[in-house]
Amino acid sequence: MTKIAFNALGAAVAAAILSTTALAQSLHINDGPAAGILTPPGFTYSSSGATSVLDVTTEGFVICANAGQFSQTPVSLRAHHDHWAMPTANDVPKIGYTGNELFVNKGVATFTPENTLACQVRGPEGEVSTPFSGSGDELFRDSWESFSAVQFSNLVNWQATSGFTWDSPDWTVVPNDSCSWDLDPNSPQVVESSVCAAATGVRPIAVSSQNDPRYGDRAPTMWTTTTANNFVYLARVDARFGPQDGPPNSHFPPDPPQQPNQAQASSVDVVIRDAYDSNYLGPNGTYCLLRKLPATLTENVCASSDVYFSQTLLGGTNPGFVDEHIPLLVGFNPAASLYIAVVRQKLPNGTSAGSCQPYSAIATMIEPGVSRSENGDEFIGDNVVFGFRNADSFEWMGCIP
């Protein structure tokens, strides 16, 4: 095995190995926002036989997956973040290093090569540097807004109605369907008319809510519960390929999303992945897809009659993580909404995270090629949601350390 320290980089498919000492400051993946690199330890590149791994320690959260059916190169990207386990994904046909910047599948001034590597990036406090994808059009933001107000707005693709304020948000008013809109009075910040994907927080309806109990109220974080042996977290997932067809909350399928012919050009692969605090949680557990929001959240949530698919965390193609694919096909199943619940076992001698720090995250990703060619999933601020113990949250959400 050859191993190159964090001050150098090599790739079987990318060409050169650096010999000079240097520290990368930022990681750039495809056309997405940059992630800060923690140095030390920085990054390493190691190769063994036909496979190679680029291992990067990031200041924030980088959750990746392979989405789509293109041939995949044997070079993998593995991101780390302060005692978090985050999934590894391959298909890294191009790596660059210049000006203390590390580029994965992206040139300094060139188009990203077609690949299946899709990643969602969040800062160390879960912040969104920009909620707009590199494939879409950005919007002007008022620089006088508070940090928390901007971040809350970054989580929701919604033009707040008159009288609403993100400095003290009433989440019962915020639309709970991220990919379908009633347009009166609710309209998106960005009209995602080609491809939409989102993973969002949800809670059982509040007393004052006008929402349907089957769909709950929108929330900035995941619904969670802690038992003697497990940590349970639940998110809502929405996905749509093509223009909106139907009212909000109308795409909960009675059966599991069917698998169309992925070879057709009019299809898209939506992937659901998770990540977790590996000081507190382990790789064992179960996850399931539900057609209806449960009335209560318990470690038996995946035994409900509303579950139409369940899987052990160690039984999939990426052991230890959620790795669920929702194929969408125009004219066949162009949209889907569902809830995903994860029952992850706690470590016997695990240590709890510090105040205001999450224990888990769920992210959605779509094929990079479809996103770029269709200007799809233009609002990415709603593609990651975090789970905390009890009512904890990030500091900008109001958590008191």
Can you put this structure into words, describing what you see?
- The chain is mainly beta.
- The protein folds into 2 domains: 2-120, no CATH class; 126-397, no CATH class.
- The protein is built from 2 helices and 23 strands.
- The strands form 5 sheets. Strands 13, 14, 15, 16, 18, 19 and 21 form a 7-stranded antiparallel sheet that branches.
- The longest helix has 9 residues, at 147-155.
- It is globular and about 55 Å long.
Short description:
With 401 residues, the chain is mainly beta.
Overview features:
disordered N terminus, 2 domains, seven-stranded antiparallel sheet, single chain, 401 residues, five-stranded mixed sheet, mainly beta, globular, 2 helices
Mean of residue pLDDT?
A: 86
Shape: globular
Count every helix, treating DSSP H or I runs of 4 or more residues as helices: 2
The rounded distance between the terminal residues' Cα atoms is 44 Å
What's the domain count? 2
Architecture blueprint of SSEs:
Blueprint lengths: L1 E3 L21 E4 L5 E2 L6 E6 L2 E7 L3 E6 L8 E6 L3 E2 L3 E2 L4 E4 L2 E4 L12 E6 L24 H9 L39 E9 L13 E3 L3 E4 L3 E12 L25 E11 L3 E10 L16 E6 L10 E7 L5 E12 L13 E7 L1 H7 L9 E4 L14
Parallel strand pairs: 2-11, 5-7
Antiparallel strand pairs: 1-4, 2-3, 4-5, 6-12, 7-9, 8-17, 10-11, 13-14, 13-16, 15-16, 16-21, 17-20, 17-22, 18-19, 18-21, 22-23
